[in-house]
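Incident log, entry 3
Record: DUF2325 domain-containing protein (102 residues)
Problem: checksum mismatch between cached and fresh output.
Input:
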Amino acid sequence: MKALLVGADRLGNIPDTLNSYGINDYIHWPGRKKGMRNYDIPDEIDMIIVFYDFIEHGLTENVKEKARKKEIPCIFSRRACSDLAMRLNSCQTCKFCPQKTS
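Fresh output:
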């Protein structure tokens, strides 16, 4: 599974958390520059994770709208492994959602 990570200048241990949920590949957009509003979501993306505490506000809205149009699951998390894990566990639209694999 491949994810688009939007926000957060540094990812720290987040890739380890993603790997534990089967997200082995990702693209990272730091999300601090207004020019990123014009970026297109790559076609091979399975889900989008937005780190809302480290992102330019207009980009948040653009990514949310583009994800909705492409029907790509999009979750919003703080840049903390514990919050990300909680959001991934409670995600209702993701392929790896624990409720769907049981």
